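A.,

Following up on our hallway conversation. Structure tokens first:
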């Protein structure tokens, strides 16, 4: 099985990789699910993927999440993380293949979220190895 996981910029890379490469059997995106509009409002900056001419007019974070479906996706977010503050809204219409772990923390990855990621990735790797 092929899986991808990352936090912060690594989470953003995981999001784009899984959306664009169907060889990824599953993906975990942590601390990287804010919409482009929310990033602009909060002043968290724009990443290199969204400055590709015309790309931000073609897709948004929610579109990338939909592109991963129906493959399993774990989204890990925190209430006080400007890089994933609106994850609940983005995932409102997500399919059953999306699991969301939401905490009250900040952007820095804490032990509870890290353990949730490790457990989920291990479960996915085991189930896809069969």
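Then the amino acids I'd put at each of the 130 positions:
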């Amino acid at each position: 099985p092929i899986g991808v996981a990352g936090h912060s910029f690594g989470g953003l890379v995981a999001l784009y990789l899984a959306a664009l490469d169907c060889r990824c059997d599953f993906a975990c995106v942590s601390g990287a699910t804010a919409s482009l509009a929310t990033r602009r409002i909060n002043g968290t900056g724009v990443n290199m993927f969204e400055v590709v001419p015309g790309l931000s007019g073609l897709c948004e974070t929610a579109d990338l999440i939909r592109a991963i479906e129906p493959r399993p996706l774990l989204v890990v977010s925190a209430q006080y993380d400007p890089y994933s503050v609106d994850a609940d809204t983005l995932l409102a219409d997500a399919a059953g293949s999306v699991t969301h772990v939401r905490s009250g923390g900040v952007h820095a990855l804490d032990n509870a979220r890290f353990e949730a990621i490790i457990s989920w990735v291990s479960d996915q790797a085991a189930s896809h190895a069969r």
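The chain has a mean pLDDT of 90. Curious whether your intuition agrees with the design.

B.
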